[in-house]
Amino acid sequence: MNIGTDVRPDIRLSLPSKGRLAEDAARFLAACGLDIKKPNPRQYAACIPALPELTVLFQRPGDIVVSVRDGSVDFGITGMDIVAERRGRNGEVLALHDALNFGHCRLALAAPEAWEETLTMADLAAYAGSLDRPLRVATKFPRLTGEFLERHGIPFKLIHAEGTLEVAPAIGYADVICDLVSSGQTLRDNRLRPLDDGVLIRSQAALIANREALQARPEVLNVARKLLEYVEAYLRAQDRLSIVANMRGDSPEAIARSMFTQKTLGGLQGPTISRVLVRDENPNWYAVHIVVRRDQLFEAVAELRAIGGSGVVVSPVAYIFEEEPARCRAMMEEVGR
Fold this sequence. Notes:
Layout: E1 11-16, H1 20-31, E2 45-47, E3 54-59, H2 61-70, E4 75-79, H3 80-86, E5 93-97, E6 105-112, H4 121-130, E7 135-139, H5 142-151, E8 156-160, H6 168-171, E9 176-181, H7 185-189, E10 192-203, E11 205-210, H8 211-216, H9 218-237, E12 240-248, H10 252-260, E13 272-275, E14 285-293, H11 297-306, E15 310-316, H12 326-334
Parallel strand pairs: 1-3, 1-4, 7-8, 7-9
Antiparallel strand pairs: 2-3, 4-11, 5-11, 6-9, 6-10, 12-14, 12-15, 13-14
C-alpha cells in the first residue's frame, strides 16, 4: 500500500487475536487506561473509548507485522521476536516501544540432551563439521536463524515447520531446533537443552507502527503520541510508590535540606512539602510527599524516620506522565519531525 496515494479514512491498531499474548495485550492496554470494547466477541474489530479515532483489529501475531509493514494497519502490538523476523529490510516498520513488559521469551537454539559434549555454539559448529551433510535446523524463524548460523560459520539446512518443533530431533527430520523459550520446561520434557550461548534474541511485546503512515498522516502521528503517552506513563509508574509523611520543621526549605541529605528521599524532581493544619498550637508540622522506587521502600521509610518523619502512608502509583516521553522524542526524530 502506498500511503501517499491510497489513504484510508480510519486509523488502525492490530492486536493478537487469541492465546496468551492476546490476553496479556488486552490486560496491558486496560492497565494503561485504554480499555478495549468489543460489542460482538465473534467480530474481529473493536474500539478503545479513550482513543475514539482508533479502530482495533485482531490478527495472528505474525500477520500483525506484515500488515503494519505493508501499510494496511498503522499500529500493532506483537512479540519483538516476530517483528525482528518479518519487519523487512527497508525500515517500513518502526518499533515505537520494544519493551512493554509482557510476553517475555527468548529465541534460542536447542540440541538433544544426549549430545553431552555439545553445550555451546562452538561445540555445535564442531559437530556440524563432522557431518557429511549440512546441519538440519527446524525453526519458524528462518531469517533470524539463518543469519545467526552464518555468523557462527555453521553449514545448515533450514527445516520450516509450523507445528510443534520439539519433537523434530526425536522423530529424525531435524538435528536441532531454534524456537521460542519461556520457562524451558517444554524443552526439558522433550529431552532438549538450550545451548549456553545460543540465544538469538530476548523478546517481549512491542508497539510498532508503519513509518510512512507516521510521516504522511498527521492524525496517525497524533495517535502515536497518545499511545506512547499512556504506555510510558503506566510503565514508568510500575516500579514506583507514593509516600506521604508528617514532619516537624522550621520551614519547608529546612525540611527539604534535611531530606536531601538522605539517599532515597529526592523524589522525581524534589519533595512536595506543605503545611499541616493541626489542632494544637504547634505550627511546625508539614506533610512531605515523594515518589520512590519500589525496591527502596523500606530504606526510604527508615530515612524518613531518621529525620523525624512519622505517620508514613504508602500508596501505589498508577501513572507518571513526563513533560515529554523519551520514546516520543525518539519517534519524532525517526520520522524527521
